[in-house]
């Protein structure tokens, strides 16, 4: 299990959103702006990494028959603990992310990684898998959020300083000033539109890449 | 005994699930105990900071949170926080809600003893991002237009958005949201007028 493969899997080839099409609830619900997507992605990454580590630690003691309830209890506990700690010690961040944190429980990607990877792999590989899958999710959420924000509001990373602190105010860009935007992109259907277009774009890109390299030819016939 | 054999036993499965649930509950109890005080303090600070937003600077020298007054209004109790300076009441702060485009809009308002608005802020809403959320002070200065208004100024029939013949601006593409805020503020002022004696006591 090498790091490079886990990295490529998590961020691109087996991306939670763009390839596995998991976690659509947070994807469509919170990606009304790049900042929201980034915040949700980072919070999920923390939970995903921790849950993968714990599941890998206890994997030999867990019976097949009761593994799902055990994983769910572990994940729900982690999410609650992250929620409590953020509320207590990073209160400003919690005010921005508060709504999203509880939503992480319903992110099936986390249970999915526990089941598909961490329950069969050593701790170190599971931790890396959780981290890279989480970063892949963050990437997807941020890109979808940016696309919706750009077409819906004419801005990029609006209010990023609320999430990341005043040092990141430079990220806040108004692309089209006084742009009233295509409201549709901010509303729920916009989530489906942006996701569909980005999925199509990724497949085109994958097909191009596959056609360009001989090793990728197999990938292309599988439909990537 | 071999762990692989054990895992197949029904008793082991039940016990292991119970053990995990117990450990998780313990972790939650500890987590809650460790964070309770910090969260309580952060939330009190939050409330104090929010209350301060709708009061002019330096208008209170007491701890607003120390002496809340609960007044029953239409089935739900409204908590009124009173700001005092040198013992004299300088303002009353309370929340008022009205139904917006998507769920309730909750406004926090500060009212001077003579019934003038000291300030209004929207503290909770679920309006459409990019349209209705201009009621947030972080996104637009619209909400500041309420400062200084009272039930007599403008007159009651003009306590409405311009589209309805009132004095308050609506937003392009969103009339329901500002209409709801105007209603909440007006309700709040009427509530204050109805309970003025009690609050000023």
Question: Can you offer a commentary on this structure?
Answer:
The complex is a heterodimer of chains A (224) and B (201). The longest helix of chain A has 31 residues. Chain A has one domain. Chain A is mostly helical. Chain A is globular, with a radius of gyration of 18 Å. Chain B has 201 residues and is an alpha+beta fold. Chain B has 2 domains: 50 residues; 137 residues, no CATH class. Helices cover 36% and strands 21% of the residues of chain B. Chain B contains 4 helices and 5 strands, in the order H-H-E-E-E-E-E-H-H. Chain B is elongated and about 85 Å long. The chains are: A mainly alpha (224), B alpha+beta (201). Chains A and B meet through helix 4 of A and helix 2 of B.
Q: Count up the domains of chain B.
A: 2
Question: What's the overall geometry of chain A?
Answer: globular
What's the N-to-C terminus distance of chain B? 76 Å
State the share of residues found in helices of chain B, binned by percent: 25-40%
Average pLDDT metric of chain A: 84
Q: From the helix content, strand content and strand pairing of chain A, which structural class follows?
A: mainly alpha
- How far is the first residue's CA from the last residue's CA of chain A? 21 Å
Question: What's the mean pLDDT score of chain B?
Answer: 86
The number of E-state strands of chain A comes to 2
Q: What's the gyration radius of chain B in Å?
A: 24 Å
Total count of helical runs of at least 4 residues of chain B? 4
Q: Strand fraction band of chain B?
A: 15-25%
Biggest sheet strand line-up of chain B: 1-2-3-4-5
Quick one: overall form of chain B? elongated
Arrangement of strands in the largest sheet of chain A: 1-2
List the quaternary state of the chains.
heterodimer
The tally of structural domains of chain A comes to: 1
A few lines on this structure:
The complex is a heterodimer of chains A (224) and B (201). Chain A has helices at residues 3-13, 24-30, 34-58, 67-89, 91-103, 108-116, 123-153, 160-164, 188-212, 217-221; strands at residues 155-156, 173-174.
């Amino acid at each position: 299990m090498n790091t490079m493969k886990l990295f490529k899997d998590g961020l691109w080839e087996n991306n939670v959103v763009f390839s596995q099409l998991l976690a659509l609830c947070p994807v469509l619900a919170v990606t009304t702006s790049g900042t929201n997507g980034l915040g949700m992605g980072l919070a999920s990454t923390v939970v995903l990494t921790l849950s993968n580590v714990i599941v890998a630690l206890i994997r030999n003691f867990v019976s097949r028959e009761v593994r799902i309830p055990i994983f769910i209890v572990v994940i729900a506990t982690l999410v609650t603990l992250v929620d409590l700690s953020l509320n207590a010690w990073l209160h400003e961040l919690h005010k921005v992310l508060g709504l999203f944190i509880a939503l992480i429980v319903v992110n099936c990607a986390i249970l999915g990684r526990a089941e598909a990877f961490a329950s069969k792999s050593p701790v170190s590989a599971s931790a890396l898998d959780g981290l890279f899958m989480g970063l892949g999710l963050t990437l997807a959420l941020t890109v979808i959020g940016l696309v919706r924000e750009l077409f819906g509001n004419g801005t990029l990373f609006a209010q990023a300083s609320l999430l990341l602190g005043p040092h990141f105010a430079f990220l806040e860009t108004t692309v089209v000033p006084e742009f009233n935007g295509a409201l549709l992109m901010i509303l729920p259907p916009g989530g489906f539109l942006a996701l569909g277009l980005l999925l199509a774009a990724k497949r085109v890109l994958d097909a191009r890449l596959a056609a360009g390299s001989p090793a990728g030819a197999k990938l292309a016939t599988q439909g990537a | 005994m071999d762990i692989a054999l054990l895992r197949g036993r029904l008793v082991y499965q039940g016990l292991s699930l119970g053990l995990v649930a117990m450990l998780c509950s313990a972790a939650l109890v500890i987590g809650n105990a460790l964070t309770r005080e910090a969260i309580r303090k952060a939330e009190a600070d939050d409330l104090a900071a929010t209350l301060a937003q709708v009061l002019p600077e330096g208008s209170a020298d007491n701890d607003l949170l120390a002496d809340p007054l609960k007044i029953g209004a239409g089935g739900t109790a409204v908590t009124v926080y009173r700001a005092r300076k040198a013992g004299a009441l300088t303002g009353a702060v309370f929340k008022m809600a009205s139904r917006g485009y998507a769920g309730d809009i909750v406004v926090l308002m500060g009212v001077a003893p003579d019934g003038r608005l000291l300030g209004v802020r929207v503290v909770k809403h679920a309006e459409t991002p990019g349209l209705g959320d201009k009621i947030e002070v972080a996104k637009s200065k619209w909400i500041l237009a309420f400062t200084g208004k009272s039930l007599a100024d403008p007159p009651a029939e003009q306590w409405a958005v311009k589209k309805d013949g009132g004095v308050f601006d609506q937003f392009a593409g969103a009339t329901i949201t500002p209409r709801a805020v105007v209603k909440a503020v007006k309700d709040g002022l009427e509530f204050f007028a109805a309970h003025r004696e009690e609050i000023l006591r």
